[in-house]
Design brief:
The chain is α/β, with parallel strands linked by helices. The protein is built from six helices and six strands. It starts with a strand and ends with a strand.
Length: 195
């Protein structure tokens, strides 16, 4: 039965000129995850990442640390939402806002409530994209092959929700469970069809 490990990219460079680049800590996190994935004995895994620099670099570094030799395949369906466009579209002037996180939280709440979203991608469209990518990846895996997906914090819960939906419906052949240990940088592992 194939195993799909969903991994959040390493820490980005929030204070740097290029936010999308991994920080030194982010590069170290990628190597730690790679060594852990190697320890877990993944079977000749497909390595997939979004197209963002922080996702691609995390995938490359974890594959290198794990000794995985397959090339990283990019799939934009695993990309994070554009937080700068989101802030421009939905964030009001920051009166009474105490942190950047509060500002992005307000913008996300407004985006989720905006069912029309005529000036950009809707929340519903964004939410469907990683679930579709996960379904396609699950369907493409051969028996005895695993996969590692490097994505971001936005797509991860959408993918985990898809896994949980599969568990609740019981009509799917997929299962999911939280990874161990709880402090691991990835959120969920997903078992694909047994056939």
């Amino acid at each position: 039965m194939p195993l799909i490990c969903l991994v959040r990219h390493g820490q980005a460079s929030a204070a740097a000129q290029d936010y999308d680049a991994l920080s030194g800590l982010g590069r170290a996190q990628a190597a730690v995850v790679g060594r852990e994935l190697a320890r877990r004995g993944l079977r000749d895994p497909h390595i997939v990442s979004g197209t963002l620099t922080r996702q691609r670099d995390t995938a490359r570094l974890l594959a290198q640390a794990a000794g995985f030799t397959r090339p990283v395949r990019e799939d934009a369906r695993w990309n994070e939402y554009d937080h700068q466009a989101l802030l421009a579209r939905y964030a009001k002037p920051p009166q009474g806002v105490r942190s950047a996180q509060e500002l992005i939280d307000r913008a996300l709440t407004a985006w989720m409530a905006d069912t029309a979203a005529t000036d950009g991608e809707s929340w519903a469209d964004f939410a469907r994209t990683p679930a579709a990518a996960l379904a396609a990846l699950t369907d493409s895996l051969d028996r005895g092959r695993d996969a590692v997906v490097v994505t971001s914090a936005g797509p991860l819960p959408r993918s985990a929700a898809r896994c949980c939906h599969c568990l609740r419906s019981r009509s799917s052949r997929s299962t999911a469970w939280p990874s161990t240990p709880p402090s691991a940088p990835w959120s969920w592992a997903h078992r694909g069809p047994a056939s």
